[in-house]
Design goal:
Layout: H1 9-31, E1 33-37, E2 43-50, E3 54-60, E4 63-70, E5 75-83, E6 87-88, H2 92-99, E7 111-121, E8 127-136, E9 139-155, E10 160-172, E11 188-199
Antiparallel strand pairs: 1-4, 1-11, 2-3, 2-11, 3-6, 4-5, 5-7, 7-8, 8-9, 9-10, 10-11
Length: 200
């Protein structure tokens, strides 16, 4: 005769609660929407003072990464990887100087990387800022990007939802071992990003 076993009622309740907790946690993990950065509409721009005469600008043309967003729980994550060799100022000689060991040392450190530690929301669930760590060469510093725009909408072009953002922060070149020509070229640099990302 086959022997049967019955699970005590208390154990059944505990098992049921454990399953519900796992399902809820799994559902929360899946709640975040993931967007892949569109490299054709994403640029990183830097701005600095040249001898106090003018504000000069350059940019990085190759950017990749992702955005994760869970507006219900007010959480998210952002990661942007910048190809250091894609620096572009409109002057090839200057571009090569910026790629050299005096500045970005692109041969040794091919990526400039930003990883968020916190995405900031306002009371209307709108993203207003991103805190995280910026790594240039072998140095990592904490930075905060203020957002001037963050918008998500369905895009007929992709048949998917896309998000776009504009933000900025200020850094010191000397914090990242790139202080050459200071103070004639300002130590302080404004760093802007223009990002569009498409939902997976």
């Amino acid at each position: 005769m086959r022997q049967t076993y019955s699970v005590p009622k208390k154990s059944r309740i505990t098992l049921l609660m454990s399953i519900m907790f796992i399902v809820q946690a799994w559902g929360s993990a899946l709640a975040a929407d993931r967007y892949i950065i569109d490299p054709t509409h994403t640029y990183t721009i830097f701005e600095y003072s040249h001898w106090g005469l003018s504000l000069q600008k350059g940019r990085f043309d190759k950017n990749s990464g992702f955005i994760e967003l869970d507006t219900e729980n007010k959480t998210g994550a952002v990661q942007i990887e910048i190809d250091a060799s894609s620096v572009s100022t409109g002057n090839s000689l200057f571009d090569n100087t910026l790629r050299s060991s005096n500045f970005f040392d692109a041969a040794t450190y091919p990526k400039v990387i930003f990883k968020s530690t916190r995405v900031l929301f306002d009371l209307n669930d709108k993203v207003i800022g991103i805190e995280g760590e910026l790594s240039i060469k072998s140095v990592t510093r904490t930075v905060k990007f203020e957002l001037t725009q963050f918008t998500c909408r369905f895009m007929p072009l992709y048949l998917k939802t896309a998000c776009g953002a504009n933000g900025y922060t200020k850094i010191l070149r000397s914090d990242f071992d790139m202080a050459r020509y200071t103070p004639f070229v300002s130590d302080e640099v404004s760093l802007y990003f223009i990002v569009e990302a498409i939902r997976e």
